[in-house]
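S.,

Sequence below, as promised.
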Amino acid sequence: MSSERVRVVCVDDHAFLAEGLRSRLELEPDLEFAGALPTAAQIIPAVKRLRAQIVLMDIEMPGPDPFEAIRDLRRRMPDVKCIVLSAYVRDRYFEAALEAGAWGYLHKGDDPDEIVAGIRRAAAGDFVLSPEVEQRCGLPHGAGRPREPERMASRLSLLTPREQQVLRMIGKGMSRTDIARLLHRSPKTVDAHQTRIMDKLDIHDRVELVRYAIREGLAEP
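The prediction came back faster than expected:
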């Protein structure tokens, strides 16, 4: 890393979080809070104007799809590293962030020192993850750096499209008979899908499986 301070932009519709980040980065001699945006609508011109090297991006905010914004930023400004900073750690969000080209996924509940360390590691070229996300990927905290995004995968990515479909139905509280009827399969086939899903997700009963589907937002309409 050069002696020049790493310039960081925060894209989040909560001004309180942006101000907190500003105050924290002011304590770091090698990092600089370059600015904040309430949405991703003008992210490309803003990042150019602010000369940012790191973008911290929320994924639950009004305006354009943040994942599309990450994808556009990666395509048009490949030297800028975008890190998701979210209140939600869900497998499907993590998968979407990887696909879009994010350079990491941090949790807003992480210790501020972890977030600052993540910014530094990303600036140095490492792919960064919240400890909670690392756990979901089955990785020991801090192991295997530097890591490329292409090597990362969540548990949800282990499921086939059919298994994900069955999981959504389970999350909505549908019975094996109802699922079998909708899929035009036998209840035994549905049971086999459920067994494989539970094995892949390391989940040991149907109640826990329903909770997982709800937590991941798979039971939403």
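Confidence is low (pLDDT under 50) at residues 143-151.

Coffee later?
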